[in-house]
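Chapter summary example.
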Amino acid sequence: MPFIEIKNLRYEYYQPGCEDESSPAIKDVSLSIEKGSFVAICGINGSGKSTLAKSINGLLVPTSGKVFVDGMDTADDSNIWDIRSRVAMVFQNPDNQIVSSIVEDDVAFGPENLGIDPAEIRRRVDDALTQVGMYKHRNKGAHMLSGGQKQRIAIAGAVAMRPECIVFDEPTAMLDPKGREKIMKIIRQLNSEGITTILITHFMSEACQADRLIVMKEGQVYSDCTPMEFYSDGELVKGAGLELPPVIELRERIRQHGVDIPSTVTDENTLIEFVEKYR
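The structure predicted for these 279 residues follows.
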């Protein structure tokens, strides 16, 4: 059985005063996500990707259809805490997620609310801060951290809950390139350790790092394939309203000059390796 199973999901935002007061952000979406996988979800603004993300751990309850997490129905109130202990979320703005003034207190907040033994909380906090490279900042005030550091603290807070899955809803959108790179390194590491990873992003270079790419358009699944398959089809990318990642665009320009560069070249490292061998 898939870890996450979505069946005919529809979600409508209520907009009072509009001619059609209900606005469907998700329209009849069905898909499944296997445990341990790394899935990126992309789409232009308004495509429904963030609504889909919030439906996965019960932040939004389906207007119709079903969402199951490890066999549990997200619409059943009795399941909600079990679901959220399995599926953590990290949002775009870290300032909206930090609830304590001291770093280690913030990371401990989730486990404390689960009633976990204090000695175990101490271990979890230390382990989580070490994983995201923020252990030495554990006694600092959160207000003293950079945006990228705050986002790493938010991730540590999710990791300390020991979830089976983490949904990252555009976690790098407010960061500079160096900060984005650090966050993506952490995300890849967490997935390599067995955590099911769902990444909502509008950075195509980040989507390339996933094993599977789901592209949303107008509230529906427009494409569901590997990043390599998607970015190898220019018409498919254009139809989604997206742009090729810079590395893919450069790869295609190199091809136009008669160089037979393989479609497996989808990131900077493989491009550099190919160019060095080609020389």
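To summarize the output: Strands lie at 4-14, 22-33, 38-42, 64-69, 72-73, 87-90, 165-169, 196-200, 212-217, 220-225.
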